[in-house]
Amino acid sequence: MLFELSDMMSNAENPERIILDRHQMKNGLYVRIDREGNIKDNLIVNKETSTIGNTYWWFRDRDYYSSLLEMNKPVDTKKKIHSNNMYTIFIKCQNLPEVGEDKQLNYNQLEEIFDGYYNRLNREYDKKEKEILEIANIEVINVDDLKLCKNIMLKAIRKTIQFIKNLDKSSGFTAKNDYVKLFIESDINEDEDIKNYIKESNRYIDLKIFNCNDYNKTVKGKIYGLSNENMVLNNKKPYLELKSTKFKVPFKISLEQAIKNHKIIQWIENARDENGKIISNFNLNWDNDLSSKPDDNCDVGICFETIKTKTGCQIIENDFIPRNIKNLNKYFEYKNYLDYDKDEMTGCKERYVLEGYVDRFFFKNQMKIVYYNDEYKPKGLNTYCSNAMTIMKIPMKNYFRLGIEDSLNSVIDKITLGIIESSLNDENVTKYSIACKENLRLNLLRYFEIGGKKNMGDILTKVMEDVKTKVKAKEFIPIGSDDEFYYCIGQLTYYLCSLSEAKSKNQNMYNSIIKAQSSKKIKDILKHLYKVYNYKIGNANLKFNNLFSMIMGYEPTKKSNVDMIICGLTTNNVIYTKKEEE
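Now predict its structure.
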């Protein structure tokens, strides 16, 4: 997929400028140094820094060309200096004399590190490196310029330290974590200056762009090597080499392609939303030239998942979206089956709205995180719900993010019911929370036309009306169906349990009824509850007498209907309903 993206980048009007404009500068003090070692300009970069202005742009472009590919590919072998060329020194403030903290160096140690850094820039290259520099037409480094830059930096770092000591506390610079970055003006002419930075950047990048130069091979004047992007292979992990073939690595790419791939990864790493947050999963339209930021909700194109790693960024998955899937195939009509006044859901036509309902009420808004983070541990969910997330992850992602229509059909019934049942055991779970889940479940069963349950919500509506009529009738009217029987079970259970004088009443007090496998067991439990609380029930309680008699006088033909029991538990209780409400 990196190759397709790099082709998209190549088709852009100015690929280099696209990358530069999105380059994210790290927090710290940026110092512009003239050829005499004096501070000419400075900029403190933090989250409040404006990204508009000549000063910011001057530092941004040079910072981009002076940055390491990754920390495992430094120039300074001691990894104290994090820049890549003779014109720059990037170092953590905590390492500097006088202004650093627990890791600070003295001036002699700092000078030794500078010596090591500049000596590495002028080191004797090995055979593979010489071959790369020759084919890439990179000339030998100018030793006089190198010595001059080193002397300028030794002078400038002392002045910079004094500058830091005089900084006001409100400057926005924090010595503990921030960088100090020094940039030498290589030429008075800014165009020539940036060309020098690019030239020295190429010297570093061309030598380090491959995963390891040991695998390089020259074919017809071109160098091919192992890509460093989305590839984990180095001297510390020789077991990742291919052992059963004549070749040790899976594929090789050209030097030019390796550079293009790296720029694509940089573009992904630096993608930010309006709030400055990293965009880790995004879509690209087919005609996107990468000049705009990635979109997390485009109509058609390529869908990417990326993760941040210690060495940068990796694309862990990509999918093709062949058509516009923003809207659902048919409108999601929402019905408030349980007749709650505070219902927070409505009908919708957009996938993301329905996805939000499912994620919110069943997974506490954590499924969208799990889509792109296998290591994420759900919070505030019981064991069943956590396991359900694992089962539902792929079906939900396929349906809501990729538009694969039948993805949820085989799991939506069993999983949603299981979540509702398990939620009854949760501490402090509310009747309203259970009702919202059940309401959404009934609507989903109807929307996805699940087996013999798609009409359960409409059946419930009729059952509720019939039970209201029968319970308040002066003459006994028997139960007319199994669905009505189990709904009445929920109603009576709720009423009897509500008579308890326990200080803490939790939803798990209904578990014995929900888990009962036979109508005889259910009736036995209800009789027991009646014996416990009948002293609170008046003889003239018509509604209770009717409801209790209706249940005891009916024998169901089907096994327990948990949905109807839960609906009976969570809807307005007919015994408590006032005459005005009826």
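The two ends are 63 Å apart (CA to CA).
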